[in-house]
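Here is the promised in-class demo. Please do not try to memorize the tokens; focus on the logic of going from shape to residues.
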């Protein structure tokens, strides 16, 4: 069984988190979570819920808990997804600053060469954002912004969330049944 970390920061995109966690639960993936205080605020504003109400997370760790298992490279996690990832978190991760447990855990994933997927969320992007994305990419992270696709003919916002969350799942080796992939033109 896979064991992953989901980190939630203060960018918009809580509906993606709910869908992604649903996929992880269906796939039997053990998920440990970290959420920033800004992430808690956004989750409350967008989904009217607390992190503890999210389904599919086995255990939550405080963002200031540097004694948590994922703070060490000897831990047994397979991957980490930061969903959504603020530009501040991206900057800390790209520059190796372990300001909180989210950043430290991302640093551990990079140094251990384990999958780290950053669902960066901001628009428009400035030069610092772009440079930090490139730095994180060059260090081994996958930059996967929540950009909707339309070839699968979504009818609702939930359809868009399904598709993006399934794309994230694929980045860490989880196949989601019902994911419509581009098949080319016939």
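The designed amino acids, position by position:
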């Amino acid at each position: 069984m896979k064991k992953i970390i989901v980190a939630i920061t203060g960018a918009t995109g809580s509906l993606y988190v709910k869908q992604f966690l649903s996929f992880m639960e269906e796939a039997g993936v053990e998920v440990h979570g970290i959420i920033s205080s800004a992430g808690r605020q956004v989750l409350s504003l967008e989904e009217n819920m607390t992190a503890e109400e999210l389904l599919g997370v086995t255990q939550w760790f405080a963002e200031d808990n540097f004694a948590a298992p994922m703070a060490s490279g000897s831990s047994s996690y397979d991957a980490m997804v930061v969903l959504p990832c603020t530009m501040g978190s991206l900057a800390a991760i790209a520059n190796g600053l372990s300001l909180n447990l989210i950043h430290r855990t991302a640093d551990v994933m990079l140094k251990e060469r384990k999958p780290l997927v950053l669902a960066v969320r901001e628009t428009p992007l400035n030069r610092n954002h772009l440079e930090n994305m490139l730095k994180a990419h060059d260090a081994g992270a996958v930059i996967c912004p929540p950009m909707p696709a339309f070839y699968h003919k979504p009818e609702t916002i939930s359809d868009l969330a399904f598709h993006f969350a399934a794309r994230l799942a694929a980045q860490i080796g989880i196949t989601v049944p019902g994911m419509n992939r581009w098949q080319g033109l016939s």
